[in-house]
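FYI - complex with nicotinamide-adenine-dinucleotide, inputs then prediction.
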Amino acid sequence: MTHPRHALQRSSTMRALLFSSQHYDQESFTKAAGGTALELHFQPARLTLDTAALADGFEVVCAFINDELDAPVLQRLAAAGTRLIALRSAGYNHVDLAAAQRLGLAVVRVPAYSPHAVAEHAVALILALNRRLHRAYNRTREGDFTLHGLTGFDLHGKTVGVVGTGQIGVAFARIMAGFGCQLLAYDPYPNPELLALGARYLPLPELLREARIISLHCPLTEHTRHLINAQSLAQLQPGAMLINTGRGALVDTPALIDALKSGQLGYLGLDVYEEEAQLFFEDRSDLPLQDDVLARLLTFPNVIITAHQAFLTREALDAIAATTLDNINRWAAGNPQNLVMG
Ligand code: NAD
């Protein structure tokens, strides 16, 4: 299907501005863009209403997960000549799609880059929390070779609940099946690949009651916002482990703190945080942490937080760059792919 209104003169050089770009984005995009006519500009600033003017005259704005793409920002971009929003992410919960459509802005995304990257990071959090690697690492560096407080449990035979069984959920389930875990799953659309691994699909409350480890791999939507809250945490087995590499707002963070204080939640691994946009991807180590909820979370010995790094493998970065450039070129040729519709 062609979209002539998106077609551009192929002779003109197209300019794309990459907001929130880090040195690793520059490396992967420069490598992938070799030989194409696309002119890439790397901008470390996050896209907000205050920084949108940096994109004046850029037909393509390339954004990441913590860039703001609400109606006022989109309106500002469209007014200054932007025609395409090329997301470097799979998730698009941060885009006001209705506003984009109204303004004639096309939105494309990278639906899959490396489900393994995210799934393997979820497993890394499970192993580190269970075997207390974060504590052991610090202890041995201090010359303390004792083992008290480091007792873990065998993953073999334990029940693991997978919430959201798309590409990442399946990759995660395969790894956990390899450990000899029993798999439970919750997803409105059961996946035959999970069933082939011996997983049982259950309603969420039953999954929460039966699983020793729960890992979230569903998108953030109006149905999944605060899917894990005080009520659902009360359904867990005391001492259960929760892993969230999906989106921060899948969980009600203050409710997690209460569950950790009571011991109802035994372990917590987060790669995403509801209020991460102001913090993640920046070095704020010289500044007082203003977020009291995050500060409290960081005091628990049974909590590990990573700053949205689950996607960060070489393979994923290369795939994000290749698909994004392909998305831009296909859109420019009037034959768009990976469009996100409202
Ligand atoms: P996917 O679209 O392949 O799978 C998502 C699954 O969630 C689908 O099977 C869908 O049916 C299911 N789902 C939808 N609503 C649900 C609900 N209410 N309850 C349970 N399941 C529901 O997506 P994916 O590639 O597996 O990615 C999943 C999510 O992971 C993304 O939406 C994104 O938010 C997150 N993600 C995080 C990182 C990171 O670096 N931490 C990287 C990539 C993706």
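The chain is about 35% helix and 15% strand. The pocket of nicotinamide-adenine-dinucleotide is lined by residues 90-91, 112, 115, 118, 163-169, 186-189, 217-220, 223-224, 245-247, 271-272, 308, 310-311 (CB under 6 Å).
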